[in-house]
Design a protein that fits this description.
The chain has 394 residues and is an alpha/beta fold. It has 14 helices and 10 strands. Helix content is 48%, strand content 11%. It is globular, with a radius of gyration of 28 Å. Residues 4-11 and 58-71 have low confidence and may be disordered.
Length: 394
């Protein structure tokens, strides 16, 4: 290797090593213990300050030692608004949403979201909507219009992402639920037709002679199925409430499905008449409070007119504050009548939720397994329930 090449390789190694030290410095946040010896400058210094305001030691105090990050946003709207602008400048949207969520939780900034100027500065997402809904009763009139605009933006994004696939999946499920024996060629269900005619297999021709054709029926415009979404609106279920409201609006737009949306804590509220606008549904909820699943299921049970054609979806972490045995009896009675009963511990992207394991096991013993469901999986779960197939439990 020539001397020039050696210098080039050495320079590249030194650059790579310096980049690693820089990254470690940004992670560790400075101070005598980080051992990097790096001092951020320019853009790095601005990024470090934004991180330090949220994650620095002694958050909320504003104190700092030599070479340490400062911490805290001062608890004032101008400081927070400036910080929100900084993180949107230096970090991608997904990171911004995480930092906003952490700021609300770590620094107690919920009250500042009641100011219109603050809401205009934040990056809207499902978790922010949940926070706004929890503050709904405390929200001044000057803020409500801005809050609704923020919520509507998130809802429209979710509808755009989820609606088309949901309608396509459920329309297919409804079509398949009505089998016909004299289908047109493009309506033939070939898998079922072959299975139904295997006895007519001709080995010499290596083919099946179909004596009976099985086809997909075409769903009529009249109502074929009824779906009741029963949603726990306790504080821990905020993201699930947002997603369920959007899905409820999508289901309500399908003429072959009669959709009812019920939210509950210790009281029960039927929001079915607001399903044409999921934003109205969301602002009709009241996040927080206790939980009475038994009372909510009693109301849902009273609205069932065609049990064999009804799907009830309970979305709850199952921490029951009502009468446990009565709740289980109601589920058993609905299932005995022919109702398809689905229990979702969460409808969100958050992973495994906290839930009441004893109640979940009791429901599973009744044939209603409880599981968390992501928004992407929800259409498949509903399709299986409508067709009375085993649920795609993750």
């Amino acid at each position: 290797m020539s001397s020039t090449e050696s210098v080039a390789v050495g320079g590249a190694a030194e650059t790579a090593g310096g980049e690693r030290l820089r990254r470690w410095r940004m992670v560790l946040g400075g101070g005598e213990g980080d051992g990097t010896g790096c001092v951020p400058a320019g853009r790095d210094a601005a990024m470090d300050a934004a991180l330090g305001a949220l994650y620095g030691g002694g958050a909320g105090t504003g104190r700092k030692g030599p070479g340490e990050r400062s911490a805290g946003l001062g608890g004032s709207a101008p400081n927070v608004a400036r910080w929100l602008g900084d993180i949107r400048t230096y970090f991608p949207g997904s990171v911004v949403q995480v930092m906003q969520r952490d700021a609300i939780e770590r620094l107690g900034l919920s009250a500042l979201l009641l100011e219109p100027e603050m809401l205009e500065a934040v990056e809207p997402d499902v978790h922010l909507v949940g926070t706004l809904l929890s503050l709904n009763k405390a929200m001044p009139e000057t803020t409500k219009e801005t809050a609704r605009a923020v919520v509507r933006k998130v809802v429209e994004q979710l509808e755009k992402k989820l609606a088309a696939r949901t309608r396509a999946t459920l329309t297919g499920a409804l079509d398949r639920s009505a089998r016909i024996s004299r289908p047109r060629h493009h309506d033939i269900d070939w898998d079922r037709t072959i299975r139904a005619n295997l006895k007519n297999y001709l080995p010499e021709y290596r083919t099946v002679v179909p004596e009976r054709l099985v086809g997909y029926g075409r769903a009529a415009q009249s109502v074929k199925k009824e779906v009741i979404l029963c949603i726990d609106q306790s504080g821990s279920m905020a993201a699930s409430v947002v997603y369920a409201s959007v899905f409820g609006a999508v289901l309500a737009s399908m003429r072959s499905i009669a959709t009812r949306l019920v939210v509950f804590d210790t009281a029960v509220v039927d929001l079915t008449d607001q399903l044409d606008d999921p934003v109205d549904v969301l602002f009709g909820t009241q996040l927080g409070g206790g939980t009475d699943i038994n009372r909510a299921l009693a109301y849902c049970q009273s609205k069932i007119t065609r049990p064999a054609d009804t799907v009830v979806v309970l979305i709850s972490d199952l921490y029951e504050g009502g009468i446990r045995n009565e709740m289980l009896k109601r589920v058993a009675a609905m299932k005995a009548a022919g109702v398809e009963f689905v229990t979702l511990l969460a409808l969100s992207d958050e992973g495994a939720p906290a839930y009441d394991h004893e109640h979940a096991a009791a429901l599973a013993a009744l044939g209603a397994p409880a599981f968390a469901c992501t928004p992407d999986l929800f259409p498949d779960v509903m399709a299986a329930a409508l067709e009375k197939r085993p649920l795609p439990v993750p």
